[in-house]
Design brief:
This protein has a 4-stranded antiparallel β-sheet, with no helix packed on it. It is an all-beta fold and 100 residues long. Strand 4 and strand 5 form a beta hairpin.
Length: 100
Amino acid sequence: AHMALRGATGGSSGDVVGSKGSKVFAIVPLDAGDKVEVLLGCSGADGSGNSGGGGGGASAILVNGNVKVVLGGGGGAGSASSSAAILPMVVSESPAVEEG
């Protein structure tokens, strides 16, 4: 099955925006009767004043309880006086993964 998934966006802080979560397109082999679960992370909370934004949650695809694809959530923004967040990464067991 062709699947697209994205990790959640990190929270912002003032004018500093959190980074987007990882995005992946994957081909995940499925058989009739397989149980597919898609776990979606929540966006990071926005910061206020001198506090930075929270990081976005990871997302994942499981088939029959086995993890097939995991995507990192976006980094939360630093405080208004610091630089923007760290970019997320993609981890996958699927041989046919194309980052976007």
